[in-house]
Predict the 3D structure of the following.
Amino acid sequence: MKIYIAVVGLGYAGLPLAIEFGKKFNTFGYDINSKRILELKKGIDRNLQSTKKEINKSTKLQFTMNISDIKKCNFYIISIPTPITKNKKPDFKLLKSVSRAIGKIINNGDFIVYESTVYPGATKEICIPILEKYSNLQCVFSDAKNNSNNSGFFVGYSPERINPGDKKHTLKKIIKITSGSNKYSSNFINKIYSKIIDAGTYNVQSIEVAEAAKVIENIQRDVNIALINELSMIFKKLNIKTTDVLKAASTKWNFLNFAPGLVGGHCIGIDPYYLIKKAYDIGHTPKIISAGRKINDEMTKFIFKNFISLMIAKKIEIKESKVLIMGLTFKENCPDYRNSKVIDLINFMIKKEINVHVYDPFIPSIKGIFKNKVKVISNLKEKNYDGVIISVAHDQFRKIGIEKIKKITKNISVIYDLKSIFVSKQVDDSL
Amino acid sequence: MKIYIAVVGLGYAGLPLAIEFGKKFNTFGYDINSKRILELKKGIDRNLQSTKKEINKSTKLQFTMNISDIKKCNFYIISIPTPITKNKKPDFKLLKSVSRAIGKIINNGDFIVYESTVYPGATKEICIPILEKYSNLQCVFSDAKNNSNNSGFFVGYSPERINPGDKKHTLKKIIKITSGSNKYSSNFINKIYSKIIDAGTYNVQSIEVAEAAKVIENIQRDVNIALINELSMIFKKLNIKTTDVLKAASTKWNFLNFAPGLVGGHCIGIDPYYLIKKAYDIGHTPKIISAGRKINDEMTKFIFKNFISLMIAKKIEIKESKVLIMGLTFKENCPDYRNSKVIDLINFMIKKEINVHVYDPFIPSIKGIFKNKVKVISNLKEKNYDGVIISVAHDQFRKIGIEKIKKITKNISVIYDLKSIFVSKQVDDSL
């Protein structure tokens, strides 16, 4: 069988996949975002993950925003965001609409592999029925059948594990979990992925195990950061420096190095809500997962309050003070500010009529977010700020150095180094 | 100054300390438990931590239960348990009574170092005032003073980090945190400990930082196990094997390997309550630390219910069934069953009129705990049990092997392998 791959959704997870598959198989990279497709055709990845050279190396890859181009494919990989609603419930809108679109074009014997993070059971409960409905075909679950029967399609789940901004753990270097709706498809899907993943694949017992494995990875991170955030709240009240305590605890061989901070983005701050929803559905009230989310969501206000206290302690007038926010992205060394908690922090400041400037080398403009109330700057002017919050640990801020940052502040001012990137004596406070 | 060391409390933390100090300094190992002292004088450590040979190598060490013997010491190390009350509040009774006893015998220039786990602030708020009261001396906090002034005593805190049953991470191989009431004492205490710790010492800014560092180590472990326990409760309802999911997730480079299980003993299940208490005192309601404790405490009932369901599914009459509990200790390869949650599990069974036998190679007898309702056995009889719960992952159970365990069960019976020490196909269920 000749394989034609379609990667549906070309974001942080989809693009690297499309590029790697396009080195080995005839591959279509499909996205509904026409701007993205036009840029990618020119070799430009605005996420700064892949270079033009890397994109061009993928000689069998074609980018398209035309769904009819991928009709002839027989191996579909769905890699689209699974966000949450305003009420923090799983938002399956995109996943459902893509499943409808793919359902309409698949044929007997085709493979459809989902990569989006969901709760265990979602692929079978939500995606497969839609595929069946719109294709008028059946998903094959029986181990007795393989695609030579030509009677139905196969579904798999292989969770994306991309770590945005991480140049070390890239797609090929991260072991990939694979699964399928029956044994035949599980093995087949595993074989296809194994062609591009140098680190190897890990084929699991069921789609549900694969779904569960992915969602708990991010939950574990969320809960661990939440614990450190809770400790940092307690230690603040006790007048103990959290960084001192963490450094000391880290001298034990099995202490886990997590740091306090804002948890935003489209993974760690989102995925736990998927399992929380499923847990409630089956009658289990999650305690620790929910507590983790609650604490991490509270951090923005905690940071804001701390900053205001630091200003007041120095008798700086809050209203119309000038504050520089260094870093807007949800994570260091990454241009992504979707669901960045720094945005919430800035919104708290706007309410207090603070004049906020944002400096983030990864973000040249922020049209629309703050209704023109926030200025994005690219030059740091001396003696300009009543306060500076270093909110993201971009490597570039370390390069700028604390001396330069001190120079841009007024004589009486506050430097709040959330991520402890500078020595604590050099700044007013950190988390 | 000639150093005479007294180690007060010769449990899991105190004995190894006394032995190591006794190789370099004149050392007294003091305990109020006369049985323990008589055994130690014969070179017998019932905790199986130290061999007779190791004890004998400590040529400058003397064991005593007579407090007047340690009057002449000038460096006191307090290493006694800090348990919780029935209401799960810190129980400082022992720490207070020892502080009183030591307060009565200390002199100007003496050092008193606490090793017991407490919340940050406890040494200064609870121990030092008692030492001052009973000694009629002052604790020196000022950096200007050192012991040549001869006007007051010095206090330090150096948390014990002993890992019971762990033959790799022993006292000398674990970095030791040190601190003191002023700079002079902090350095001095650090110097004394550095003589016996091969891994090195880590001198911290204050007693509070040292206290905080210790308590969060165990909290982090408690919370991480609680998360996995919560996941295991959810996955059980979803009919997904937790071990399958954990194995899959562990193929990611940064997934942390924790396993579900009972959390008992005198550290992980206890220490979080100390920080919880302090947090409430200062007006902070801990969310994640408390959620962790709650889940881990609920595990016993969860396990009991699962076991009963497994029995019912096989139509085994619960009442007067015969069940073997393999492992009573709070941890594998360790003879300590203080606060072991297996005891609670057995108590649930007794209530259901199940005939419980206990097999634990580390525990020859359990006088008094179960009012003669539970039999401790040392021989495994064939075709004897309706159910077996492998509750502790003692290496010896692995050596016995699942085939032998199957032989001791009746034709229709349940094997519940809590710690997944055997292949899942070989047992009825695991966590």
Observations:
- Chain A touches chain B through 60 residues (CB under 8 Å).
- The domain at 4-205 of chain A is CATH 3.40.50.720 (Rossmann fold).
- The radius of gyration of chain A is 24 Å.
- The mean pLDDT of chain A is 95.
